[in-house]
Each structure stands twice: as structure tokens, then as C-alpha cells.
Design goal:
Largest sheet: 9 strands, antiparallel
Number of strands: 11
Distance between the termini: 26 Å
Strand content: over 45%
Number of domains: 1
Strand order of the largest sheet: 3-4-5-6-7-8-9-10-11
Length: 156
């Protein structure tokens, strides 16, 4: 049985521009960068609070707390040293940028959450890494949806 942990937090100071998933895990680094996808998620306003490793799943969770306000957190989940999710929290609720990746490290889904609900533009990617869908949402309600990738069989 797999253990799940729920944490709180994140900062509005996160800077995100197409952050890629596939990257080596480094505990010392506070900035993530992917050479094939030169985007940056700036976590310099945060400090690493705790790392938990799960040997059975070869999984590691990092909890980053905002240096100014401990109610803001980032949770980064790694599997086989590949980032598979990046979630922001504020006051125990998912708030801010969220990124979910396939097991091979390619993006699956990315977008913003406000009070735990999907808000604004959400992008979905097929397993080849192609942009497959764009959805515009307001409080988890889909306002507009476009499917772009012709060879994608994945459903978001």
C-alpha cells in the first residue's frame, strides 16, 4: 500500500514559463531547468523543509516552505529521479501552478489552481510531448476546449 502525504502551501512568487518535467533531481538546487525546454521555475523564495523517500516506489517528495510565510508550500514529487509533479499550496489548499508529468518525464498536464479548482488555461500533452489540448476553465467548469494533436489517443 502506498503512503500519501498532504501538505499545505505556496507562494505567488513562483515564476513559471513552460517548465519541463524531465530533469535530474538535485537537492542543492533551488532552480529547475531543462536544456531541451529552457524554462525556469524559480524557487529562490523558498527553503527545502523536508525530503521523504519511499524505497518501494523509488519515489521522493520534497517540501519547500516560503521563507517569509510558512502557509505557502511547494511539493515536488520525483520518481526514479524524474520530476513527475509540481504542486503549489496555500493554507492547506492547492493554489497556483500545477504540473503533472508522465513516468518518462514528459509533460502531461499543466495549469493554475485557485482555491483547489482549475482556473484559466490548462494545457494537456500527449505521450510524445505534443500539445494535445487547451482548456479554459473557471472554478473547474470548462468554458472552452480545443484538441490540437491529431495522433494523440490520451484523454486528459
Amino acid at each position: 500500500m502506498r503512503k500519501l502525504f498532504l501538505l499545505i502551501g505556496i507562494s505567488t512568487q513562483i515564476l513559471v514559463a513552460n517548465a519541463g518535467c524531465k530533469q535530474p533531481h538535485t537537492e542543492q538546487s533551488t532552480t529547475q531547468q531543462n536544456n531541451s525546454d529552457p524554462a525556469v521555475v524559480d524557487t529562490t523564495a523558498f527553503r527545502l523543509k523536508e525530503v521523504r523517500a519511499f524505497k518501494a516506489d523509488n519515489e521522493k517528495n520534497e517540501w519547500w516552505v516560503n521563507k517569509q510565510d510558512s502557509n505557502y508550500y511547494i511539493i515536488k514529487q520525483y520518481r526514479n529521479d524524474i520530476l513527475v509533479s509540481f504542486t503549489t499550496y496555500k493554507n492547506k489548499v492547492r493554489n497556483g501552478y500545477t504540473l503533472i508529468c508522465y513516468e518518462d518525464g514528459k509533460k502531461m498536464l499543466e495549469g493554475m489552481l485557485v482555491d483547489g479548482k482549475k482556473e484559466g488555461m490548462w494545457k494537456g500533452y500527449d505521450k510524445k510531448g505534443n500539445l494535445a489540448s487547451i482548456r479554459t476553465l473557471k472554478a473547474d467548469v470548462i468554458l472552452e476546449e480545443r484538441f490540437l494533436s491529431k495522433d494523440s489517443t490520451d484523454k486528459q
